[in-house]
Amino acid sequence: MKLYSFSKITLAIATLIMLLHANNIYSQIVFPSQSTYKYLRGNEAQSLGTNWVNPDFDDSFWDEGSAPFRYGDGEGGSELSDMNGNYSTLFLRSKFEVNNLENITNTIIAMDWDDGFALWINGVEVLSQQRPETITYDALSSGQHESGTSELFTIDVEDLNLIEGENTLAVFACNTSLSGSSDFYIDLSISAVAQLSNVLDYVEISISHNSGFYGSA
């Protein structure tokens, strides 16, 4: 005699529906804090042009390190013990993946910084705070901002220059003064997960028997 569980059948149907909507489930962006970057100190960037934000820029000669990039505040990451009094800016580049872009609506960028920054995706500036009017190797932030707590920026995906697959992230970070600041800090994360189809929000299955096990000869 075979036994059938209608509750298990319900679970199997729900699982099948989820598999059919796998593209939605795996539509995402995951770029965590403490990620790895190529970076260039401001005192090494006197001849750096404006094309450093573009995907095809050659950053092979830049140093490599993990965020946070800092001195005076925080822990871990890449400590810039030579920054104070020598350079006020830092140029950063990294990569991240976007899966099933057509299903993503909003992107969350979590920033933790001291004192100013500007951020580009695939060569287009998408976010800045305390940004100087002109991005130069010796620029200073337009205001002060203390690190320690990430601030969340929710941005419509249509306002970002995202593409399916590999994307290029470029970040300019700067201090409020060359030698008068006691600290510097920059780290960020980018995340997005698509909304699942409404069919996954509510699945109604009608069965003429109560839940339980039933026999079959």
What report would you give on this structure?
With 217 residues, the chain is mainly beta. It has one domain (2-195): Jelly Rolls, CATH 2.60.120.260. It is 11% helix and 39% strand. It contains three helices and 14 strands. The chain has helices spanning 6-20, 22-25, 198-201; strands at residues 2-5, 28-31, 36-41, 63-66, 69-71, 78-79, 89-99, 106-114, 116-121, 124-129, 151-156, 165-174, 184-193, 213-216. Strands 2, 3, 4, 5, 6, 7, 8, 9, 10, 11, 12 and 13 form a twelve-stranded mixed beta sheet that branches. The chain has a two-stranded antiparallel ribbon with strand order 1-14. The longest helix has 15 residues, at 6-20. Mean pLDDT is 84; it is low at 1-25 and 198-209.
What topology emerges from the helices and strands here?
Elements: E1 2-5, H1 6-20, H2 22-25, E2 28-31, E3 36-41, E4 63-66, E5 69-71, E6 78-79, E7 89-99, E8 106-114, E9 116-121, E10 124-129, E11 151-156, E12 165-174, E13 184-193, H3 198-201, E14 213-216
Parallel strand pairs: 5-6
Antiparallel strand pairs: 1-14, 2-7, 2-13, 3-4, 3-7, 5-13, 7-12, 8-11, 8-13, 9-10, 9-12
| Computed Rg | 24 Å
Number of E strands: 14
Quote the average pLDDT. 84
Tell me the β content: 35-45%
Shape assignment? globular
Q: Roughly how much helix do the residues carry, as a percent range?
A: 10-25%
Q: Which spans of ≥5 residues are poorly predicted at pLDDT below 50?
A: 1-25, 198-209
What structural category arises from helix and sheet content?
A: mainly beta
Number of helices: 3
CATH topology, by name, is Jelly Rolls
Domain count: 1
Query: What characterizes the major β-sheet?
Result: 12 strands, mixed
* Oligomeric state of the chains present here: single chain
Series of H and E elements: EHHEEEEEEEEEEEEHE
CATH class annotation: Mainly Beta
